[in-house]
Amino acid sequence: MSPRDKILQAIRQNKPALTALPAIPTSNTFADQVVERFTEILTTIGGQVVSVPDMNGVAEYIRSHYPAHRVITTFPELAEVAEVHWEDTSPHELADVEFAVLNVHFGVAENGAVWITDPLMMHRASPFICQHLGVVLSAGQIVPTMHEAYARIGSADYGFGLFIAGPSKTADIEQSLVLGAHGPKTMTVFLVD
Amino acid sequence: MNHPQRAEVFNRDEDRVDWHDKTLWWVRQKRDMAAHKLPEWEALREAASQIKHNVLSNLDEYLVQFEAHAQQNGVTVHWAADATEHNQIVHRILVENQVTQMVKSKSMLTEECHLNEYLERNGIEVIDTDLGERVVQLAGEPPSHIVMPCIHKKKEEIGEIFHHHMGTEAGLSDPQILTGLARTDLRQRFLTRRVALTGVNFAIAETGEFVVCTNEGNADMGAHLADVHIACMGMEKIIPKREHLGVFTRLLARSATGQPSTTYTSHFKKPRNGQQMHLVIVDNGRTVQLGREDFRNSLKCIRCAACMNTCPVYRRSGGHSYHTAIAGPIGSILAPNLNMADYADLPFASTLCGSCSNVCPVKIDIHQQLYKWRQVLVQQGHVSASKAAGMQAMSTVLSNRRVFAVAGSAGRTLMRWFPGIVSNSLNPWYKQREMPEPPKESFREWYEKNR
């Protein structure tokens, strides 16, 4: 008998009687003031929110903060200040990217996370390999909790989906928090009204 | 060496024990603050526990569903009955791809299976990429905590380890600088390794995707830069539907570190173009545990380590004293299932205070299982004759009112007249503590006079 069949047979012999799935609890804790809560929590976990009127505000930010660095983006309208044609490079060639600006689907108020899937990343490595990460989020696209987040994702198809909550971090050395473990050292959410 | 002997070694450095104790208690307090912000916290724990119960009661069906969906997504699914089969499968994938170097992110399953040692014996170099795991790997030690693998190390020691193994400047101890050095060193490994292995936090039967949660981003740096991604999971990691992730992602990081979420919650569904994605489903004793009615709930564990951070014994004895991949209260109810003779000491490494059960996000009755394992281990002859005799004597005294009264009175008198009888190094209760003043009378005697 194959290991697979051996394991399945052992489970059938040993499993308890079938029990029903419970209802998923609901929450109103984060239902109001989602933008304020999102901003507050993202700031607490080491990220920052920059409110911009439109994509020109993002371009302005790039010009002032990353004037002489490699910046990549998936937004064609940022072509003047960032590389927009990097889909055919290998992900390894992104190792020297200083700042990446990506689009995201929505944000989550309770934990400051944003949801992004692989078409928006161009390369799956892009949100991780850059030194600093920026994402563009519409203020109207923030849900209260992870329950609403998964309801919104529904049965969407993707190859890779990701919640990002702030910059990469570690506290492995004596519980001292250090931002920038292996991924980005900072995370900026450009909030568009 | 058993738990008490190893704990004694850990307790030789009093300052370190105090630091370890306070630091982990602070993590427990952070967990409390995060949990108390959610009025629905208890409802979430109950729902998580019931979802996991449903999983255990239908595990075969969910695994078959998961496998079919994962295969449709282009993932190669492997099954391993035990640790040896698991290690052989991983090795075979490496050989087939003619690779001798691999990066690995945190996976307690691979610690349980001793994968690193197996691969190294077969000429494969494995680099652990979680910062804490890298530190203990360089030190030649196993992790002492499942979330904070090098919590037993001081920053000066880590500076010394980096100096010795990575050639960094001597005498460094700033966590920011040390983390930066590891970042630079490991980035080169991520960019040059063709195979990356990760663990799995949740596998969704409905969609065939699996979810990996990290703060550092090391699992993703490995997986998205490698040609081959191998993910290894214990078979109990299954959850039925994607919507159930809402419950578990809300509980996991809050229970572990008090964060509202891990930085990254990565949903791997399909390999990227040109990439191979392998998933290894491992039993290694889990089907046996599933059949033990008293202990099967231990398979609900989501590896948050809240039970370790709160445990007065873990905090004061250190993770290495448990001599098993998963330390602390949860490790002490999982390990005897794998080998009763080797881990018979662990269910006794507890005060049975119940704090572990109170913080468990999936409501495992940990302290009750510790108590039940003690009974199984004594009945099956896995405890020493002296411990068994002591428990027998205790049982005689405690079950007979007169004997209890006489023994108590004699004990108090002896302790008053000859304190050296208990206050000496032969009495394990005297280690690291003062014995209390014996009371003049028992409560019963006081009550007789004062009622």
Automatic annotation (TrEMBL), chain A:
Protein name (database record): Lactate utilization protein B/C
Pfam families in UniProt: LUD_dom
Domain LUD span(s) in chain numbering: 93-192
Superkingdom in the source lineage: Bacteria
TrEMBL record, chain B:
Signal peptide positions (record): none
Key word Oxidoreductase present: no
GO biological process, one term: lactate metabolic process
Keyword Iron-sulfur set for record: yes
Sample GO molecular function, one term: 4 iron, 4 sulfur cluster binding
Pfam families per record: Fer4_8 (PF13183), LUD_dom (PF02589)
Residue span, 4Fe-4S ferredoxin-type domain: 291-321
Keyword set, alphabetical order: 4Fe-4S, Electron transport, Iron, Iron-sulfur, Metal-binding, Repeat, Transport
Protein name (record): DUF3390 domain-containing protein
